[in-house]
Amino acid sequence: SVVIQECYVQNTAREYAKLYAAEAEPLEGFGEVPEIIPIFLIHRPANNIPYATVEEELVGEFVKYSVKDGKEVNFLRRDSEAGQKCCTFQHWVYEKTNGNLLVTDLQGVGMKLTDVGIATLAKGYKGFKGNCSFSFIEQFRALHQCNEYCEMLGLKSLRTTHQKQRKATSTKSKNLPNSSTVKKMVPKKAREHRDFISSEH
């Protein structure tokens, strides 16, 4: 059932968050680490809906720090400490699982997160299959910008390969006689790619 899947996903993400905390907390200057609150499954045999979930109530401003499809960059996420540490958590999990798994949809109050999602590659990861499209992993790779917390953890930048390719294409276009047409084509391709991402759900 969806409820059981939801429990399984959140508690799997919680285990990764605990490992992340164990690695990040001892680092000088890292400070508080986001935690994913536990979600408990209760069975109510007499009820019409036999399974329900129970979790701690979060009081305060509820913020979406990472959006499922990566299109939206909200300022609370980009500029807040919790938002940056959530993005670093995503990068850390991505690196730890060799790009096979990504915790998405990080949201909550301050450093306490709930209702998260997990994207895995189609085949899953170590017998676990996520509840989000694997295209989120590709989008994360393309859109993630490392911050100081990524640097503190020594995470490898995901941008280097893209930059190398970009430099190579820009030098090639200079050698071509009609470089203006080449330049015009590049943003058009980028636009089409963006439309493709936004239309995919």
Task: Provide key terms for this protein.
201 residues; alpha+beta; Protein kinase-like fold; 4-stranded mixed β-sheet; two-stranded antiparallel sheet; 7 helices; 47% helix; membrane
In short, what is this structure?
The chain has 201 residues and is α+β, with helices and mostly antiparallel strands. 47% of the residues lie in helices and 14% in strands.
How would you explain this protein's 3D organization?
The protein is α+β, with helices and mostly antiparallel strands. It has a single domain, classed as Protein kinase-like fold. The chain is 47% helix and 14% strand. It contains 7 helices and 8 strands. It has helices at residues 2-24, 75-79, 81-96, 135-143, 148-152, 160-175, 179-199, and strands at residues 35-36, 39-43, 51-55, 62-64, 101-104, 107-109, 112-114, 117-120. The protein has a 4-stranded mixed sheet. It has a two-stranded antiparallel sheet with strand order 2-3. Strands 5-8 form a two-stranded antiparallel ribbon.
